[in-house]
Amino acid sequence: MFYHDKKLQYQVRVETPNPAFAKLLQQAIGGIEGEIRVCLQYLFQAWGSRGPAKYRDMLLDTGTEEISHIEMLSTAVALNLEGATNELKDKVAGENPIVSSILGGMDPRHVLSSGLAAMAVDSNGVPFNGSWVVGSGNIAADMYANVMAESTGRVLATRLWELTDDAGMKDMLAFLIARDTMHQNQWLAVIEDLGGVGSNLPIPNTFPMSDQVREFEYAFVSTNIEQPPAPDARWASGPSIDGKGEFKYVYASPLGQEPVLGPPDVKGYAQEQQMTGGLDKGILENIKDTILP
Amino acid sequence: MFYHDKKLQYQVRVETPNPAFAKLLQQAIGGIEGEIRVCLQYLFQAWGSRGPAKYRDMLLDTGTEEISHIEMLSTAVALNLEGATNELKDKVAGENPIVSSILGGMDPRHVLSSGLAAMAVDSNGVPFNGSWVVGSGNIAADMYANVMAESTGRVLATRLWELTDDAGMKDMLAFLIARDTMHQNQWLAVIEDLGGVGSNLPIPNTFPMSDQVREFEYAFVSTNIEQPPAPDARWASGPSIDGKGEFKYVYASPLGQEPVLGPPDVKGYAQEQQMTGGLDKGILENIKDTILP
Amino acid sequence: MFYHDKKLQYQVRVETPNPAFAKLLQQAIGGIEGEIRVCLQYLFQAWGSRGPAKYRDMLLDTGTEEISHIEMLSTAVALNLEGATNELKDKVAGENPIVSSILGGMDPRHVLSSGLAAMAVDSNGVPFNGSWVVGSGNIAADMYANVMAESTGRVLATRLWELTDDAGMKDMLAFLIARDTMHQNQWLAVIEDLGGVGSNLPIPNTFPMSDQVREFEYAFVSTNIEQPPAPDARWASGPSIDGKGEFKYVYASPLGQEPVLGPPDVKGYAQEQQMTGGLDKGILENIKDTILP
Amino acid sequence: MFYHDKKLQYQVRVETPNPAFAKLLQQAIGGIEGEIRVCLQYLFQAWGSRGPAKYRDMLLDTGTEEISHIEMLSTAVALNLEGATNELKDKVAGENPIVSSILGGMDPRHVLSSGLAAMAVDSNGVPFNGSWVVGSGNIAADMYANVMAESTGRVLATRLWELTDDAGMKDMLAFLIARDTMHQNQWLAVIEDLGGVGSNLPIPNTFPMSDQVREFEYAFVSTNIEQPPAPDARWASGPSIDGKGEFKYVYASPLGQEPVLGPPDVKGYAQEQQMTGGLDKGILENIKDTILP
Amino acid sequence: MFYHDKKLQYQVRVETPNPAFAKLLQQAIGGIEGEIRVCLQYLFQAWGSRGPAKYRDMLLDTGTEEISHIEMLSTAVALNLEGATNELKDKVAGENPIVSSILGGMDPRHVLSSGLAAMAVDSNGVPFNGSWVVGSGNIAADMYANVMAESTGRVLATRLWELTDDAGMKDMLAFLIARDTMHQNQWLAVIEDLGGVGSNLPIPNTFPMSDQVREFEYAFVSTNIEQPPAPDARWASGPSIDGKGEFKYVYASPLGQEPVLGPPDVKGYAQEQQMTGGLDKGILENIKDTILP
Amino acid sequence: MFYHDKKLQYQVRVETPNPAFAKLLQQAIGGIEGEIRVCLQYLFQAWGSRGPAKYRDMLLDTGTEEISHIEMLSTAVALNLEGATNELKDKVAGENPIVSSILGGMDPRHVLSSGLAAMAVDSNGVPFNGSWVVGSGNIAADMYANVMAESTGRVLATRLWELTDDAGMKDMLAFLIARDTMHQNQWLAVIEDLGGVGSNLPIPNTFPMSDQVREFEYAFVSTNIEQPPAPDARWASGPSIDGKGEFKYVYASPLGQEPVLGPPDVKGYAQEQQMTGGLDKGILENIKDTILP
């Protein structure tokens, strides 16, 4: 069950409202790298957690923390939008064509749709999409999904930090960047808690290795028709990361057949020519009489 | 530049066509764990690759291989759908209410829209979405995105393997499961090639650690109001995974203020009561006369 | 800032797991009538709230409660899915065509993608969409958006209640149905708190009535070409609901012109025939030589 | 059945074409507050209307009127885009970096995709989405959905009115604002026609009140951990809006259990460690031999 | 401006309600091949029509007709759903696992969300998407978009006709199939009206042929690495369809360079190793000191 | 199976990087007129091809070529973005309000999300959508879908050509424009290869003409209530394009009934008033006691 108080997890100050920066911040709210995604992802993973309870508890702790991050960023968007309506009006209505186009730096829906507040969308106004909430039921797969989310999330936060000179905004982002540092370490710590990379790979580690086609389980397949020599790289030779095989480097060549599908289903309403080869209209008519009612 | 031949990378056989399994296979084609996603993800990462060329070359090799996987799965869907139209007709038109509902096991669009062929959708018919194609420009973040994709992808493939008794389908999936084993190892091998986990974390490793709010960079924040003791877990104490700090366990408490936003913009057409406190209609009227034209 | 404990707001019991009911419950989680929508809607309205603070506080209270509802429903989905993998396997792999199609009653992604847990999708597997999160900055418009959400939400919950015989599920839904009763009353109570329907309509009440085209502000426009007589209905005559006018009943007829757009832009690459009327190829060639470089 | 003539419902004039305003107008065409949504919403409600015929007839009248509104706005977009290609060319191609960025004020697809015409998208180019078309089969729920659509729609129209100085555009919007006034009153008049708010709440009013968990049907639940006193507000005490109960104010506390899910399904390919607690690799191997084939 | 009456364009009868067929019919309403798409497509093309007025008038006529088709199909869905709630209840609640799964043949939202009425979604419940509404401003491109829509639409309608034995439904579909016959002919008649295929190709015909890279304008490029001989096919040799060139058959070979992108932007927060080659941690540290603040 | 080399199909040069043009180019990558769509469309048509093998081979050739086009355009986007981060920083952070708004000309996600590389989105940042990938199983319908894709694609490419003065970009686009010329001719050549327009229309040509409602198969239906005379146009009289009938021009009038749906399902939780006419509360109560448990 969930509770709240009325304060923010960390202070949010905006010295100079900037509607263009409000637009950029939306990426950290409703974008695929954003906080709604990690919030729902950790909570759904918690709510579906099967196995040792400590993982569920941890996911619940951090999923709840992320709600507070959405709150901080939404507050930051609203503060950056203070006064934006008048500014937009001047721009759109203005006679000066250069000035009139300044609208572009804003999300117009911040004025038109939300009345100077954050929305559940990304920096282009594309809505948050529930498909981004990954919880597979396999804890190792989920931890890598979480590392990925916190990695792209921290990259995003550093870029936002770079794009503002507002001291308040830099401070808020510096806090969020620190939290992403922890969370990257945290999810990888779960992998260690589970015995480390080797004992978890390949994910899922419950599928019997003997049931996969073993010849290709550690082969790097080069699809380059020029067949260049193997590079001097970790993935081209030597022991595999999971310690269960040796990398090898092979050139792609087909092992399968040329696929042949059956003719179109008579009731599926393809063209006659697909069923007969399309060569002879007279034959087509005969066939049609025969095969079609 | 890209080329093809007419054969498949690995053989695709279907002993007993099963439209219900065709529907399930769509998850591996157009789902978020599917092959269109990894194909475009690796290719877009290659096309945007900046830095040492060997990473670009490798991404191009594997991105191209994934096109062949989409081709294999699409062939498998078409073969599983042979004869499905007549079967569906019997079901929908049948008088027997039990029989008439068998439609549910299929994707109806396999008959209605594609004429017994694969589509760019998932197992519920939800279209592939380009937002899933992740390429951040930061190679470590991208590698974890790729590990995640291959981990959820292999989990999916093993579940599909479990859900069929068709020897041909099991064989095809056993090949794809092996390739996912390699690709999980491959992307983690890139992390090693880049110096290992420690020298890559936190991602991005180019943001100065000193610019983040250091007090929180390795703190696990428990948001549980019951404030339970720290668990005996890898993420609650001890050295951080990146070797740059010590985990600590803290209880959530607000560091920020209660947020206060300005009043609604007069031109933003909020309700009068929002601007005046909503208490006194007479006052409202006066204000309206004053502040609104 | 947000907190949690480890218990549920209300008990969630499933006596007989039923994967088909798990699919239906997804509508109440990730559907447009569902709990993710109301949760984010109330929280975003709170975070963007401008005007008297008591409305913000209330929105925060109820938005937080809704997280607990997502948690209850997600738990219910997971409990209904216990054991579903084996069941699905039997169905897909079975030789009996009737049995093999039972898959249809489930969301296949509950097995393939989530490992028997809830997802952020609706009952057809269509992902939650952030566009549903409405917060306009106008409190009266937002309250009606909230009444609408709780009304369609309660209709959904009663239909789910009707479709199950499981005593645990009926009990959980009976609780959620009660909460929707409160929330419908609550949002309409805000309208009263703001002075009642009359003083809030038309929304926004800050736009000067004199600036709209007054002739049509209370006219019901019948677009029926048969021009039937006005019905004996509340909206066809008598005082308007806001008490600021009288309903009238009029027949549609155009007040505007036939629209005439300019010719295509020469650089916009329309067809030649659009620019010349398409009548005379010789003329077209001449024009092309002239107007195109 | 539907008919048309060639004139517009109300005149549409643009004195000074403004591509930036064309972009803003798209919100009123293809946005969630826009006319495609209300048009399809009222028509689908009409086509699915069950019960007294007068509601169906009314919905058909107004749904048809809304097509004419889409037509007016689409005409306005096209007129605002006259001449925009050349302007855009100058901007993108220009050497002056300030000038070259003016593109931002436009929707680039107005030039690239539609050839200076309206599209079925919102002001950020996000496509119209059919999920917004609400028709629940419960007439009271639908009426509140319609009030909400007309309230956010009128708020949008007033903001657009504010953002232009073009007399033609202001006139067209003043007409649409008047129609939204009527439609807000109209949908609430249906509630009165149905007996008023009290006899319709809670929606649906056909679910027996005795079947909901009565203790919580009029309780405001404060989730604030600081447990502030009840506010002096309409929703915290006094009779409920539907006249069927008394509001009360309570503090959140869990009534449910800590949820416990079963272990992962053996065939669902979770990690071994989820099934065994992850503590002992030797044990894991033994278990694997036993539980996995 | 638009009008309606209360009758249907063509009779809609359902002899035996079938919720499974209601689900299939949704493809013809809200699917990409469906009537909402063609309706909006023709109307938006009309509203943006530039050039001779007769094309606009025709598009308006047919776009309006398509509203009546949505109406017919929505009526058919509602009639097929009569009585479906009780049926669904039996299925979901039933103890018999075979019976309980019959849900799959229906769209669950027909009961849960719409109350036995049509929705703006396809046969899998995926919402209509405004991106499908194509109007390019080039009339020839638009006519081929319309031919395509009516061709996939008629294929869909014939498949639906095949899947029902209900005489009423077959009759309604036989009418819609006839209308699609007309509309295919109609859009191709516009091409003839514009001077025929030859004078319209390549579309747009206003781009000077001399400005494209002429060597490749009629070359079929085989990307098959086995370089098979040219097939005996219309597209491999002989005059081009537009009469402006000769088809030739060539084998793919790269004409471009190996792309080389610049190094990552220092402020874009890529990994250090991308900027330095990743070889030498000591060097990395030095560089970091230098290039990063 | 698929292969690649490391060069581009045609040279890609950017003389002056222009982030605004990078944004426009995204339409040709991830837009509905773009190269991901045609690539997947031709490949999925190939993989599902039933009937003579030569069509499959051809689709595979051209589908593979389109991957190379995505690669060229993605390279062009990356080259146009060189140096964009610093530029953006200046703009957002700048104090000068005019300068600070220049952001609008760019896709902010090119800096925030992709690190100066292409993404699978359109020019407004809306993600590619798999629903655009059309393959109906009917070859004639598919060929018109392909003509449509290449027609809107070539219109787009010419508009992009018009909007740049960069010699490298103009050269690349001139190549792509030539390829679109070929592909338009190619798909229409398939129609000829199949016997020409007449023998393929109406699509599908396997549905017996006698089974459609013949009275309306060549009738242009005018829905204009003013009933104007038939225009002098190819589609209003004379032989139909398929040579199987005569066009006629008729005025719309309803042939169907006024639809009457049954009352709401008692278990579907409509409002009482819908079931009783809403006239008499006493009666309602009685009915409720009777029909509702």
TrEMBL record, chains A, B, C, D, E, F:
<protein>
    <submittedName>
        <fullName>Catalase</fullName>
    </submittedName>
</protein>
<comment type="similarity">
    <text>Belongs to the manganese catalase family.</text>
</comment>
<dbReference type="InterPro" id="IPR012347">
    <property type="entry name" value="Ferritin-like"/>
</dbReference>
<keyword id="KW-0106">Calcium</keyword>
<keyword id="KW-0464">Manganese</keyword>
<feature type="binding site">
    <location>
        <position position="35"/>
    </location>
    <ligand>
        <name>Mn(2+) 1</name>
    </ligand>
</feature>
<dbReference type="GO" id="GO:0046872">
    <property type="term" value="F:metal ion binding"/>
</dbReference>
<feature type="binding site">
    <location>
        <position position="69"/>
    </location>
    <ligand>
        <name>Mn(2+) 1</name>
    </ligand>
</feature>
<dbReference type="InterPro" id="IPR009078">
    <property type="entry name" value="Ferritin-like_SF"/>
</dbReference>
<dbReference type="Pfam" id="PF05067">
    <property type="entry name" value="Mn_catalase"/>
</dbReference>
<feature type="binding site">
    <location>
        <position position="150"/>
    </location>
    <ligand>
        <name>Mn(2+) 1</name>
    </ligand>
</feature>
<feature type="binding site">
    <location>
        <position position="66"/>
    </location>
    <ligand>
        <name>Mn(2+) 2</name>
    </ligand>
</feature>
<feature type="binding site">
    <location>
        <position position="61"/>
    </location>
    <ligand>
        <name>Ca(2+)</name>
    </ligand>
</feature>
<feature type="binding site">
    <location>
        <position position="183"/>
    </location>
    <ligand>
        <name>Mn(2+) 1</name>
    </ligand>
</feature>
<keyword id="KW-0479">Metal-binding</keyword>
<feature type="binding site">
    <location>
        <position position="57"/>
    </location>
    <ligand>
        <name>Ca(2+)</name>
    </ligand>
</feature>
<dbReference type="InterPro" id="IPR007760">
    <property type="entry name" value="Mn_catalase"/>
</dbReference>
<dbReference type="InterPro" id="IPR039377">
    <property type="entry name" value="Mn_catalase_dom"/>
</dbReference>
